[in-house]
Amino acid sequence: MAGSNVRIVVAAVIRDGQGRFLLARRLPSAHLGGLWEFPGGGVEDGEDPEEALQRELWEELGVRVAVKEPLTFAWHRDEVKTVLLLFYTAVIVEGTPQGREGQEVGWFTAPELRKLPVPPADRFIVQHLVAE
Question: How far are the Cα atoms of 12, 27, 63, 95, 130 from residue 9, in angstroms, in the given order?
Answer without folding.
Answer: 10, 17, 18, 23, 22
